[in-house]
Amino acid sequence: MLPPVEEIKTHLEGLLPGVALTVEGGAIIVPPGQLLSVCRTLKDSERFRLDYLSNLAAADYPPERIEVVYHLCSMAQKHGPVTLKVKLPRENTAVASVVPVWRGAEFQEREAYDLYGVKFEGHPDLRRILMWDEFEGYPMRKDYKHEDQDA
Amino acid sequence: MPETASISGPQILEVNLGPQHPSTHGVFRMMATLDGETIVKLKPFFGYMHRNHEQIAEGITYIASFPYTDRLDYLCSMSNNFGLAVAVEKLGGIPASERGEYIRVIMAELTRVMNHTAVTGFLLNDMGAFGTPLLYAFRERERILDLFESASGSRMMCNYVRPGGVREDVTDDWLARCRQIVANYPRFLDEFEGLLRDNEIIRQRTQNVGVLSKELAVSASITGPMLRATGVNYDIRKVDGYSIYPRFNFKVPLGSKGDVYDRYYVRVLEMRESLKILEQALKEIPNTSPHISPKGAAMGKAPRTFKPAKGEAYGRIESPKGELGFYLVSDGSPRPWRYHVRAPSFINLTVLEDMCLGEKVADAIIILGSVDIVLGEVDR
């Protein structure tokens, strides 16, 4: 069984000196620059072994930020999910891709890119996935203006 | 001078499979690069049926999304409703009634049996056994759809499971008919298996084809029968023990190689386990409690009064195709601020290319068939 989220955070900070994490509503908030090292540690640590990226989703909170949410589980130890979040400014939504850690992020990151415009750096093939290539804009953002069908 | 292809060297050919092709199970396109008949590269393209289900859901009340979830994986509307109900219950702290839980489990397991029957029929169709096995499968599926129709009013778009229970109660007569179908089903499975399991042609077409390794399956977030065919024991009914699944006695069938044959056979075994759950649930179902808890019923009557406190929830279930998850964020209003569907068909496609590399082009069709996708869920 997983310890409470506060304990996971303290444990992580012990393993990764210099990484400042906070806990907010059951989720661990990770600074964007440290995402990859935190993910690698959670996957490789004997204690957690979070080898399975269950879900990846972006969410828009205008005017300031877009969040990317990661739900991590362990297939080896059958526990989870642990929720990680990265907060990104809406104007500059660059964050490291976690595809090198979990292949399962490949399509999910493409979806977050397609609908929210999150730029996953280091993704092997970051293209639109649901919308067509020529489409402009990010339709799931809260300020997206719908085309007027009657005009 | 125009470039000419050398006759002795490899001739690379790009072939577009789909989007309008019966073997792609919907509007799905694969761009295959072939060396002779061997696949050297394969890129899936989809989104032709994208309707922004998530955005629609963010503009309506929680309960108004239920009919839309029917259209995700349109073979398994009952389990889609169930997934959203689990997430909404988690978000809003709605307890489910005892009888409601039993009915939901019965519906979800009937859906699993029905889905696996249909997908096996389709897989054989893809292999070239046109018509006959598919019609056998559809005959049995239709019996279950009849049950769905008399409980919910619709064969496929059931819109039946609700937070706190189910929309309408089932009658004793319905339960008797359900028991009858569950009792007869193993006979059909025996017949179906007898035709297929040891069939030489099927074995040659499916064994050691489209092999997926354990490590890749876990890393690529593969779930459902496709994961278990590789030998990883991970079933959310056991791991999370959501709803009342811990009360039932059932096993999690596992494969060993992760090839197309294992994927087919794991599904057959899973149907038998689902029938075991059904037998137990139909025996134990109580008739003392209502089919929906008072809080759930109140929510159904006045959807706009349901305003979950600020916060978020991730609810997931083991749908017939894998982990179906709903990520909901509430801002305290009657509508979700964020509504995200973690669709198993969509994520299971991640490794399609890995499974197809080095196989023949005809195998790509059955590998895709063995993934078991429904485009309504892939494209959302």
Short synopsis of the structure:
Chain A is built from 3 helices and 7 strands; from the N terminus they run αββαββββαβ. Chain A has 151 residues and is of the alpha/beta class.
Write up this protein.
The complex is a heterodimer of chains A (about 150) and B (about 375). Chain A has about 150 residues and is of the alpha/beta class. In chain A, about 20% of the residues lie in helices and about 30% in strands. Chain A has helices at about 5-15, 35-45, 105-115, and strands at about 20-25, 25-30, 50-60, 65-75, 80-90, 95, 120. Chain A starts with a helix and ends in a 30-residue tail after the last strand. Chain B has 16 helices and 10 strands. Chain B has a 3-stranded antiparallel beta sheet with strand order 1-4-5. In chain B, strands 8-9-10 form a 3-stranded antiparallel beta sheet. Chain B has a two-stranded antiparallel ribbon with strand order 2-3. In chain B, α3 packs antiparallel against α4, α4 packs antiparallel against α11 (about 260-285) and α6 packs antiparallel against α11 (about 260-285). Chain B is globular. Chain B starts with 11 loop residues before the first strand and ends with a helix. The mean pLDDT of chain B is about 90. The interface of A and B includes residues 51, 59 and 81 of A.
What distinguishing features does this structure have?
heterodimer; A: 151 residues; alpha/beta; Beta Polymerase, domain 2; five-stranded mixed β-sheet; two-stranded parallel sheet; 3 helices; 7 strands; B: 380 residues; alpha+beta; three-stranded antiparallel β-sheet; 16 helices; 48% helix; 14% strand
